[in-house]
Design goal:
Number of helices: 2
Strand content: over 45%
Largest sheet: 14 strands, antiparallel, barrel
Strand order of the largest sheet: 1-2-3-4-5-6-7-8-9-10-11-12-13-14
Distance between the termini: 61 Å
Length: 296
């Protein structure tokens, strides 16, 4: 019910509403993922997101998403807001408390289904175009631009509705999904660093998944690394930043049985960093290119 993302560490807001508005700049990001290429009906996901601090301690942002898998499609909008609590005098430690609301359109395209039985009632009654409201919550601790940790939950309302309007005993509700995320960026000398990130997901049905990612960075301008998703895949990540543009690519090598029939998964993202100040000094690329003149 919720799409995968191998480069979540570059956009924490998509898994935790408490991360809304935590950047010194405004990140506008486009993300595209094609899962299990060459596998018929494999999931395809597009995301567009942006968020910003709108006051001294408030954040606001949103995500537009489209997720297609076989005959089913989810298209919707998620709007997040957060409040950033200052935990120390220097304002190095903060705790973001975020709340989001969403509206999702669920759709089944019966023309893409081939049934064993003619006039199968599960198909004839399965076409349903529903707009489903929901909510999410997140608590996100962050230390400067070095470390972070958070817990969050999606599908809080857990609407007791059959998404596809089956008029029989079949039942298709939204299920709550819980996330735990954390990471730290270690400095390895003047120009190099190591970024470590972990993500755990649990659905109330008992299904769980865990990701561990290690990235080597060079002056925050280039990165290369790998990620392991438990029993699912090994992902290879690479990317960089040129001016206000950040971009990344990941390739997932599938470890499950689906790997016998697919060519892995591909994911790309492109981010535009907009300044919140007139001088643009808050954006990372401007900080790297500023020339400081010594005072007389």
């Amino acid at each position: 019910q919720i799409a995968l993302n191998s480069q979540y560490l570059f956009n924490e807001m998509i898994v935790n509403a408490g991360a809304t508005g935590t950047k010194e700049y405004i990140p506008v990001q486009f993300n595209f993922r094609k899962q299990w290429t060459s596998f018929p009906g494999s999931p395809t996901t597009q995301l567009i997101s942006a968020h910003s601090a709108i006051a001294k301690k408030m954040g606001f942002g949103g995500v537009i998403f489209n997720d297609v898998s076989g005959p089913s499609r989810r298209t919707g909008l998620n709007i997040n807001t957060s409040y950033q609590l200052q935990l120390d005098k220097r304002n190095n430690h903060k705790l973001g408390l975020g709340l989001g609301v969403s509206v999702t359109q669920h759709l089944i395209d019966v023309t893409k289904l081939t049934t064993y039985l003619p006039d199968d009632p599960a198909v004839l009654r399965g076409y349903n175009n529903q707009m489903v409201p929901d909510a999410n919550f997140g608590a996100f601790y962050h230390y400067k631009d070095k470390g972070f940790a958070g817990i969050s939950a999606s599908n809080l309302v857990q609407l007791k509705r059959d998404l596809y309007n089956f008029e029989n005993l079949l039942y298709n509700p939204l299920m709550r999904t819980y996330y735990v995320i954390g990471g730290y960026h270690f400095d390895l000398g003047k120009n190099f660093g190591l970024k470590t990130t972990a993500l755990g997901q649990v659905i109330e049905t008992g299904t769980w998944q865990a990701d561990l990612t290690l990235l080597g960075t060079y002056r925050d301008m280039l990165w290369l690394g790998a990620s392991y998703r438990h029993t699912d895949c090994v992902a290879f990540l690479a990317g960089g930043q040129v001016g206000p543009f950040k971009f990344g690519y990941s390739y997932d090598y599938t470890l499950s049985d689906i790997g016998k029939y697919s060519s892995g998964s591909h994911e790309i993202f492109l981010e535009l960093q907009l300044s919140r100040s007139k001088t643009g000094a808050a954006t990372p690329w401007m900080k790297r290119n500023r020339i400081y003149t010594p005072k007389n």
